[in-house]
């Protein structure tokens, strides 16, 4: 055997043995749960330190970027066919046989880890004559959110593994559902990848369910398209064991899924059949296939929209597509002639007519609203895209539009969309005139279209007090928007990317619960731009909120409910179980948690005794580091274990700082999935910009504590002397602590789940630093316990999930494998903590798979169940006796 081919096989054999040895330690499962993958070793696969260092050096010295291949303009009927990711070896073999039968060429984009796990499958692809290129190290989505250093490491590791396996260095890169930002392109170029690939069309396996469907699909293609098939299972059904009914752990629970063999086989069969139908249809349409690298023509520009299913139009779809769309629309209208029409009706306005720009709701949903019917082509395009995406929106219609475009309005109604009343009162319009206009439009909608609406919107201009009064007098809701997509300077923009950069910038990772996004359809010169924007915003600012991993995502797990819905405004307002009052009624806040309850008064208690009782410390915070105002003798009385006194095999999951819906929602899903409570210590400076998220954390049964208002530590090191110094005077610090607690109470002070309040009087010190003055201020402002913790996971620095899993595991287990009882893990809810949710999912799944009799099995507890009145961190015996009586 050739030495070059033998070396990778030997390396794989050695790695497999090491993994097997590691499994014997019982990390992922107990003895009865063999066979699961050891994900703590991921970072060991694809080490490419030299390549990474060289690539980072290139980045410093060059600003070159990889070019983007999106399509070609061939003279003949040519397409590039790609396969993304790997399926089982048997499935790939069947696909290779079909490609050979139809004399088709294909480019397989494989990720580094899959290549290491299935090298023979990759070698088979190579020997069949097809191209093998780079699909990143793990095939993760949304790589644009990673740092350039992580991108380089990812690309180089994949390059290293693929080149060692195939004997050929990949020259093309494709990233999974990733925006090709300048940073991504620069990292690719530095890693030796001159070009990156953006597919034009993705094959939807479910839609290619017949040869006729495949023929329709191919008829809508244009020569030069890049057609891609995802081989990773991301859209097939799987069965997840219900958390609601599982009294005990699932013995064979994977991180999210329990696949049924017969369903897996059926999914594989559907995939192979869809590929066969595609190849037959391509032959009938006289298309030939070429490798992607043959499409050398690239202008480096991404197209404004990407078709992701059979019926979703691309930017250059022709008359055949629109004929299909019109026919489908006519069929839909005929069906609706015999269907009772219903308009969503929100509750009457209760705020005196003030504009609702963000709905106060904990529902994982937001709203898209639309206006402007004068451009019929744009409206039809938007309606079609909404239909393909399964979105229902709210269309605000002016009286003049309802009169001029009645058939278009009927089409909107027939599509199941909600209708609101658009108004544009003049500067001199009185309360009475505006009220008459609204009432007249309500009558028109009732008499000519058979529906009622109590939603009113003034699309542009300042809303006057008279308008607000007129809306409220008719028991209507005045709807605004938190994101207005249309800006005056964007009228002649050609692509969604141009608009996105100016609307959202780089700091907005995602949209949020309850937000209202408004689109105007008759404004842009490009008739398709409004539709391109709604698709792009959904893909990059809504879909990224969901928890989506290779083993658990909304696409492959019906029980994964982490995806945010896009719903009509009125439907969201009508969901009263999610709607809440802000600020919370103080009378509904439990008495012992009200802000005005007095704290401990200085001079009326023995400070050191109370500090020792109420401070749960950290092993690295001591007299020399992050403690100020304490003598060495006093420091000895303070806790440094960071663990709650208990005989239970219990740990506590805590999360610091603040983040967007994209980060926090993933944590909430994982905790919900495993029925695990968490304690969220919040920096409150920005929470009122997104109170719905804070309220949602509380509504799911988690605890809220303060991490200060602006994350200013009680003490810090003086840069000149190196000594610890205070950062604020007592009055300033008391004011900050009080403001932080007031914000938490205003948003979620009245939330009680299963008889347990969400709000606590717990505090986590910024940087874990404490001072005598700061602790006194905490007691005076009503805080009861200072909770630092036993392990700082540094999850925001983690380079991969495996690294973080190992760190968390070190905080849970002692060297002998026993659970560290009462351990408090410090993690973060910020957007930089990329791997926290995934790491927790894997660990909690592994723990649930253990037998109840396994001494290494832990449970996740609530801090407030243990830090009750009478608990003392300085008196272990008393605290154990107290907790034993719970």
Give the helices and strands, then pairings:
Elements (H helix, E strand, L loop, with lengths): L2 H21 L25 H13 L5 E3 L8 E7 L4 H13 L5 E4 L1 H6 L1 H9 L3 E4 L13 H19 L5 E2 L8 H9 L4 E3 L3 E2 L8 H9 L6 E5 L30 H24 L3 E3 L28 H19 L27 E7 L4 H14 L4 E4 L1 H6 L1 H9 L3 E5 L8 H19 L5 E3 L7 H9 L3 E2 L4 E2 L11 H9 L11 E5 L8 H14 L22 E2 L2 H6 L32 H8 E2 L10 E2 L3 H5 L13 E8 L3 H13 L5 E4 L8 H9 L3 E4 L8 E3 L6 E3 L3 H19 L3 E2 L2 E2 L1 E5 L6 E2 H9 L4 E3 L3 E2 L8 H12 L10 E6 L7 H13 L10 E2 L2 H4 L9 H9 L2
Parallel strand pairs: 1-6, 2-3, 2-8, 2-9, 3-4, 5-6, 7-8, 10-11, 10-16, 10-17, 11-12, 12-13, 13-14, 15-16, 18-29, 19-28, 20-21, 20-31, 20-32, 21-22, 22-27, 27-29, 30-31
Antiparallel strand pairs: 23-24, 25-26
Please, could you describe this protein's structure?
- With 886 residues, the chain is α/β, with parallel strands linked by helices.
- The protein is built from 28 helices and 32 strands.
- Strand 12, helix 14 and strand 13 (455-457) form a beta-alpha-beta unit.
- Helix 11 packs parallel to helix 17 (529-542) and helix 25 crosses helix 26.
């Amino acid at each position: 055997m050739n030495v070059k081919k033998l070396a990778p096989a030997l390396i794989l054999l050695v790695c497999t043995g090491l993994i097997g040895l590691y499994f014997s330690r019982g990390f992922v499962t107990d003895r009865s749960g063999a066979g699961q993958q050891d994900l703590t070793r991921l970072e060991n696969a694809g080490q490419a330190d030299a390549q990474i260092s060289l690539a980072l050096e290139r980045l410093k010295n060059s600003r070159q970027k990889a070019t983007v291949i999106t399509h070609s303009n061939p003279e003949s009927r040519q397409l590039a066919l790609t396969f993304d990711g790997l399926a089982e070896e048997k499935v790939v073999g069947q696909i290779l046989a079909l490609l050979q039968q139809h004399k088709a060429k294909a480019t397989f984009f494989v990720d580094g880890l899959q290549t290491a796990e299935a090298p023979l499958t990759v070698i088979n692809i190579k020997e069949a004559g097809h191209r093998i290129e780079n699909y990143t190290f793990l095939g993760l989505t949304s790589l644009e959110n990673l740092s350039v250093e992580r991108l380089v490491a990812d690309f180089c590791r994949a390059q290293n593994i693929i080149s060692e396996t195939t004997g050929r260095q990949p020259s093309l890169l494709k990233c999974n559902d990733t925006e090709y930002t300048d940073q991504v392109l620069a990292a690719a170029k530095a890693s030796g990848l001159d070009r990156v690939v953006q597919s034009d069309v993705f094959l939807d396996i479910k839609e290619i369910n017949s040869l006729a469907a495949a023929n329709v699909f191919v008829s809508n293609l244009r020569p030069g398209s890049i057609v891609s098939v995802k081989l990773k299972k991301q859209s097939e059904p799987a069965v997840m064991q219900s958390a609601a009914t599982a009294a005990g752990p699932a013995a064979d629970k994977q991180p999210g899924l329990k696949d049924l063999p017969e369903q897996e086989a059926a999914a594989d069969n559907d995939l192979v059949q869809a590929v066969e139908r595609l190849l037959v249809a391509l032959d009938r349409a006289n298309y030939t296939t070429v490798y992607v690298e043959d499409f050398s023509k690239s202008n480096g520009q991404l197209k404004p929209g990407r078709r992701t299913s059979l019926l979703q139009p691309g930017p250059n779809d022709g008359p055949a597509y629109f004929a299909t769309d019109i026919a489908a629309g006519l069929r839909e209208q005929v069906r609706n002639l015999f269907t009772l029409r219903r308009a969503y009706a929100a509750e009457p306005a209760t705020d005196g007519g003030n504009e609702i720009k963000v709905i106060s709701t904990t529902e994982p949903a937001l709203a898209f609203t639309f206006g402007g019917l004068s451009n019929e082509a744009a409206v039809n395009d938007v309606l079609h895209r909404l239909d393909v995406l399964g979105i229902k929106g709210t269309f605000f219609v002016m009286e003049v539009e309802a009169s001029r475009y009645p058939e278009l309005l009927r089409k909107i109604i027939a599509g199941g969309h909600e209708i609101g009343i658009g108004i544009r009162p003049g500067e001199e319009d009185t309360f009475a005139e505006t009220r008459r206009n609204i009432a007249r439009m309500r009558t028109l909608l009732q008499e000519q279209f058979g529906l009622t609406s109590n939603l009113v919107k003034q699309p542009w201009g300042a809303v006057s007090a008279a308008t607000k009064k007129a809306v409220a007098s008719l028991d209507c809701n005045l709807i605004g928007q938190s994101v207005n997509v249309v800006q005056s300077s964007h009228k002649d923009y050609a692509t969604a990317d141009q608009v996105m950069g100016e609307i959202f910038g780089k700091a907005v990772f995602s949209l949020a619960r309850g937000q209202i996004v408004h689109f105007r359809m008759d404004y842009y010169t490009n008739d398709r731009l409004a539709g391109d924007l709604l698709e792009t915003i959904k893909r990059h600012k809504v879909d990224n909120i969901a928890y989506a991993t290779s083993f658990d995502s909304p696409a492959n797990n019906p029980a994964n409910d982490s995806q945010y819905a896009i719903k009509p405004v009125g439907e969201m307002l009508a969901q009263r179980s999610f709607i809440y009052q802000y600020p919370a009624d103080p009378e509904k806040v439990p008495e012992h948690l009200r802000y005005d309850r007095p704290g401990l008064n200085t001079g009326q208690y023995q400070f050191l005794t109370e500090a020792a009782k109420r401070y749960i410390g950290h092993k690295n915070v001591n007299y020399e580091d992050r403690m100020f105002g304490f003598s060495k003798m006093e420091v000895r009385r303070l806790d440094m274990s960071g663990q709650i006194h208990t005989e239970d095999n219990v740990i506590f999951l805590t999360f610091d700082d603040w983040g967007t819906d994209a980060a926090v929602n993933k944590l909430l899903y994982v905790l919900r999935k495993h029925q695990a409570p968490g304690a969220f210590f919040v920096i409150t400076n920005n929470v009122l910009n997104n109170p719905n998220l804070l309220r949602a954390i509380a509504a799911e049964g988690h605890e809220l504590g303060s991490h200060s208002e602006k994350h200013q530590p009680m003490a810090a090191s003086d840069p000149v002397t190196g000594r610890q110094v205070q950062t604020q005077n007592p009055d300033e610090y008391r004011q900050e602590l009080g403001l932080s607690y007031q914000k938490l109470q205003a948003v979620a002070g009245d939330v009680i789940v299963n008889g347990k309040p969400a709000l606590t009087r717990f505090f986590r010190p910024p940087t874990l630093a404490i001072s005598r003055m700061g602790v006194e201020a905490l007691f005076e402002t009503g805080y009861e316990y200072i909770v630092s913790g036993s392990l700082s996971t540094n999850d925001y620095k983690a380079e991969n999930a495996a690294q973080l899993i190992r760190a968390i595991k070190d905080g849970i287990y002692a060297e002998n494998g026993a659970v560290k009882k009462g351990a408090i893990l410090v993690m973060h809810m910020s957007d930089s903590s990329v791997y926290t949710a995934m790491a927790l999912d894997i660990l909690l799944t592994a723990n649930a798979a253990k037998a109840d009799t396994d001494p290494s099995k832990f449970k996740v507890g609530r801090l407030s169940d243990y830090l009750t009145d009478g608990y003392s961190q300085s008196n272990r015996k008393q605290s154990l006796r107290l907790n034993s009586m719970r």
